[in-house]
């Protein structure tokens, strides 16, 4: 097919504002994703279990001239998820872009892993992503357009002393591929971004678990990354923006690792 310059109509379509919902948006990668989506003119719902954190990010977006609302929910609770999506829809309209980012770590060696820690991590990362998709995808299907981006991790490829987190992220990647097949006929794409080492609040926890100061931990981690630096939330957000783009409709069921080097 011969390449042709984009028409004005096409350019206008690519700038269309959508309603974007980011879970775990009150800090770290989620906050970076919410801010980047808002910078492109999307209306953003910042969802977090800690409403104060979500509110701070929403305030920052509004102070920069964007549109944002803060919503509280535990993504593993179907009642809270349904209420949150109803609240977002009433405030901004139907969700067109969903970013499943909510998650946390409770690391331990497999034989020492408490069942409660296994259940809590899997419930948030995997069950939560399923519930959020179930709550938002019907409106996307009705509109004939939708973008779902799941935040995985290079840990999905295997990591020691965090079997619950690894299993949840590996499951999330399988969920991504399967949901992509189901929803492709509806005009909805489903993809995943797998961050490598990114400096967030969880980095401090990882440093403490390794018996290092944060500075020591970051220095050691940077030496293992081919590009020679630690990632930032905005590095991950830019990959999310690619999957969420209006003209990314031929890319679905994919996992891209954003880690400063090759993985997979």
From TrEMBL:
Task: Please name the SUPFAM superfamilies in this protein's record.
Answer: NAD(P)-binding Rossmann-fold domains
Q: Which residues form the Ketoreductase domain?
A: 18-196
The record's listing under Gene3D superfamilies reads: NAD(P)-binding Rossmann-like Domain
Against InterPro entries, the record matches this protein to: KR_dom, NAD(P)-bd_dom_sf, Sc_DH/Rdtase_CS, SDR, SDR_fam
Task: State the family it belongs to.
Answer: Belongs to the short-chain dehydrogenases/reductases (SDR) family.
What PANTHER family does its record include? 3-OXOACYL-(ACYL-CARRIER-PROTEIN) REDUCTASE, 3-OXOACYL-[ACYL-CARRIER-PROTEIN] REDUCTASE FABG
Specify the protein name: SDR family oxidoreductase
Species name? Lentzea indica
